[in-house]
UniProtKB/TrEMBL annotation:
Keywords: Chaperone, Endoplasmic reticulum, Membrane, Protein transport, Transmembrane, Transmembrane helix, Transport
Protein name: J domain-containing protein
The species this protein was found in: Drosophila ananassae (Fruit fly)
The encoding gene: Dana\GF10637
InterPro entries linked to this entry: C2_domain_sf, DnaJ_domain, DnaJ_domain_CS, Ig_E-set, J_dom_sf, Sec63-dom
PROSITE patterns reported for this sequence: DNAJ_1, DNAJ_2
UniProt subcellular location: Endoplasmic reticulum membrane
Classification lineage: Eukaryota, Metazoa, Ecdysozoa, Arthropoda, Hexapoda
Entries under Pfam families matching the protein: DnaJ, Sec63
Amino acid sequence: MAGQKFQYDESGGTFYYFVLSFLALILIPTTIYYWPRKKKEDPGKSKEECQCADCLKKKRILANAEPYRALKSWTIKLTIVLGWALLLFLTYRVSQFDYEMASFDPFEILGVPPSSSQAEIKKAYYRLSKVLHPDKETGDEKSFMMLSKAYQALTDEVAKENYEKYGNPDGPGAMSFGIALPSWIVEKENSVWVLGLYGLVFMVAMPSAVGVWWYRSIRFSGDKVLLDTTQMYFYFIHKTPHMLLKRALMVLAASLEFDKRHNSQVQERQSDNDEVPALIRQLPNLNEKCKEHPLCRMYSIKARAILHAHLSRIPLNPETLERDRQFVVKKCPYLVQEMVSCVHQLVMMAYARRVPRLPSIETIENCMKMSPMIIQGLWEFKSPLLQLPHLTEDHLYFMNKKRHVKNLQQFAQLKPEESRTLLKNLTDFEYENTMKVLGKMPLIDFSIRCEVIDDENTNVVTAGAIVTVTVTLERKDMKTLFGDTKAPEKQGINDDANEEAAGDDDDAAATAVPAKKTSAWAKPRKGGKGKGGKKPAQNQKNNQKKAPPKATAAAAAATAAASEDQTATGNSDAESDAGGADNSDIESAACSGSEDEEKGNKNHSSLDDDDDEEWERLQAKLNKRERLEGKSRLSHTVHCPFFPEEKQEYWWTYICDRKSRTLLTAPYHVTNLVEKEEIQLKFTAPRWPGVYTFTVCLRSDSYLGMDQQQELKLDVQKAPVPPTDHPQWDLSESEPEHNDQQENLSDYTTDTSDEEDSD
C-alpha cells in the first residue's frame, strides 16, 4: 500500500504498549480474586458455635490443614505487588513516549516567545547551536536535530506552511505501523534461539499440558468421582438389586479413590500391618473374609474397617489411622451421591427394558442412609439424640426411663426444667451448649400439592397424564419447639410400617380424600387445610357412586363436608393458596374427580378464576426457574464434630411406590434450603384407572431422625377417547387396548381390588 510503512520496534515503545495491556489484563482480575483477605471473626458468632471438645478439636484440625498457608499468602502478596510495580513502571515509560511524540513546539525548543522577530529567532538558534552541536563537548545529536528542525519550521516558508497545516515541518509523512516485537527477534544470529523457544513452547509445553489435563479429566465424572468407581457401583447394584445397608457400606469402602494405584493421595504405611488387623479384631460383622473383588482387597478392607470405627466412634491413632479416617470420611458424601445417581440410572434403564432387574427402593434409601451416618459418625440404629454434644448412652437410658424421650423433637418440646432434670449430670456450661446446638438444628415443614398442569382441569388425573407434585419445604430452627408440652410422635420413615399400611382393607382405597395426620412435631391447628387435600363436590359424588358398599357412609360424609367447605371458600385451588401456612398438617394429598361433570358445571366466572390462577402459577414457575439458574450450595452449617470438614444441610426428595418397591421420580438434591424452597417432581400417571397410593419422601443427608414422608393418593380417571372422525387421527392400525393392558399391567400397583368398576 502506498504511503504506508511497516517496521519493527527499534526503540521498544510499541512493545511497551503490548506488555502494558497484557499485564493489566492479567493483573487486575488476579488481584481481585487472589489477594489474601483475612476474615474477621465475629465474637458473637463464635459464641453461638458449639464449644464441645470434639468441635474444638475439629477447628484445630481445619486450622492446621494447610501448614504453608502463611507462606502461600505472603508469596501471593509479593507477586501481586511486584506485578503492580512493573505495571506502574511501564505506564511511566509509555507516558514519556507520548510526551516526546506530542511535544514538538519550535518556539519552546528555541526558547523564544511566539511574537519574536526573525532576528531574535536566528540569534537564539546560533546561541543554542554552539552548545548542542555534536562536535562540541556538551553536544547532543538528538537535541541538535530538534533544534534545526524548529529553526527551519520558523524561517523557511515551505516548512512553516507545513508546520501550520500538518504540525510537522516535513509535511504529511507516511503512515507508520509498528510491530510490537523487538528487532533482535528477527536478526539472523538469533534465529536458532527464537525457533528453539517457539518449538519448546508451542510444540512441547502446550501439547504436554493439554495432554496431562485431558488424561486426568477423562478419569473423573462431573462430580469428581473416578469413572472406574462409577462402573463398579453399577456392577454391584445390578448384581444386588436389594442391597442391604452393610452391603452398601462394603461397596462404598471399595471405591477406587481409596486405592493408591488410582489415587496418589492415599498413604500406605508399614504400621498398617499391625494397626489394621488390631482394629479389625475390635469390629464385629466386618465380613473381612469376603472373596469378591475388589471387596477382598487390602485397601477395601482397610477403608471398611475405618468406616466401621468411625460409625462406632472408636478412637484411632492420631498419627496414622486417624489421618486415614479423615481422608476416607471426607470423600464419602460425594461417593454416596454418585451411588444414588447410579441406582436412579439403573431404575430408568429397567423401565426402558435395557436391564432385566429393577433395583428396589430399599437399595437407594440404604445408599442415602449412609450419608447422615457418616456425617454424624453414628450407626442408624443408634438414638438420634447422640448427635447432640456431651450426651452419652447413660444419659439416653435415664431420659428414656423417666420421660420416654426417643428423638430430637420430643426432647425439644420438653419444658426447660424437665430437660434440665433429665440432664442433671451435665454442668451448666455443657447443658447450655447442648441446648444451643439443639436449637439450631432443622425443623422442616413438609407439604405437597398435586396437579396436572397441562390439562384444562388441573385437579383431575387421567390415565397416562403427567402429574406434577410440588413439594414445599420450609425450614425453621428447632428452638421454635422449646417449651412445647405436646408429646410428639416419632418422626422418620418406617418402611415396614408403610408397607403394612399400604396393604390394609379396601375402605381406605375407596375414596381419594386424604386422611389428616399431624406431623411428628407440629401442634394441632384449628381449621388448617393443606394444598391438594380437598376435592370439588361433584368429584365427591362421582366417587360415591363408584365406591363399594363398605365405604358408602364414609364417602357420603366426606362429600357433605366438602360441599360445605366449598360453598364457604370457593374452589379448592384458591383455598390451597390461602391455606399455605398450614401445609405441615397434611400427611397425604389427592387429585381426583370426574372430568365430564366438571366441564358440565363450569361457568364463565370459574373459567376466569382458573385462567388467573393458571397465570399466577406460570409466573411463579418462571420466577422459580430464574432463581435456580444461579443455584447455590449454601444453606445452613451442620453440627458434625466427627466430620473433618464444614458441611452444609442438603436434602433428598423423591416419590416412590412402597407396595411395588419402585422409584417413580429421580431423587432431587436440595442444596439451597435457607428458609423456603419449592421443588417440582413429575411422573407419568398409571395407564389404567383406579386409586393408587404413592409416597413422597424427604431425607436428610446430614442428620439422623429428620426424615419425613407423606402419602399421595391418586384417583386416576379414564382418559377421554379422542374423536375418531378427525382426519389426522387414524386409530385403525393401532394395537388392541386389551393386549396393551396385559403388557403393562404391572407398571403400578393399585389399592382397589375391583378396577373394572372404576372404569
